[in-house]
Amino acid sequence: IGQLGQQYDGRDILARLVRYGHLEWDQKRFDAPIRYEAGAALLQYPTSKTWEALVDSYFIVPRDDVLPHHGAWVAYVTDVLSDEAQRWGNIPK
């Protein structure tokens, strides 16, 4: 979905997956790789909706393996939205 962003608008799907991907993946697993992939793909669209989806996903399931990346993702989108993105060399991984 993230790789088709140039042809199709997949932002809403990616936002849903970053928020609730653990439910669609496996409720009993500690991690949900789909949440990481969706979050990384959303960085191509640094908008207020992306920021909201990333913050929401942090609070929905704060125990999974995406946590170490959330801070960098939210900081990057915040900087872009506040015109501070020049200090970032590249999009965080």
List segments where confidence is low: pLDDT < 50 over at least 5 consecutive residues. none
Q: Work out the radius of gyration.
A: 13 Å
Structural class: mainly alpha
Care to count the β-strands?
0
Residue fraction in strands: under 5%
DSSP helix fraction: 55-70%
**Helical segment count:** 4
- The 3D shape can be described as globular
Distance between the termini: 18 Å
The main sheet comes to: none
Order of helices and strands: HHHH
Provide mean pLDDT, rounded. 77
Oligomer: single chain
Concise description?
This protein has 93 residues and is an all-alpha fold. Helix content is 57%, strand content 0%.
Mind explaining what this structure looks like?
This protein is an all-alpha fold. The protein contains four helices and no strands. It has helices at residues 11-25, 33-42, 48-60, 67-81. α3 (48-60) packs antiparallel against α4 (67-81). The longest helix is centred in the N-terminal third of the chain and has 15 residues, at 11-25. It is globular.
Tell me the layout of helices and strands:
Elements: H1 11-25, H2 33-42, H3 48-60, H4 67-81
Helix pairs in contact: 1-2, 1-3, 3-4
Features:
93 residues, mainly alpha, single chain
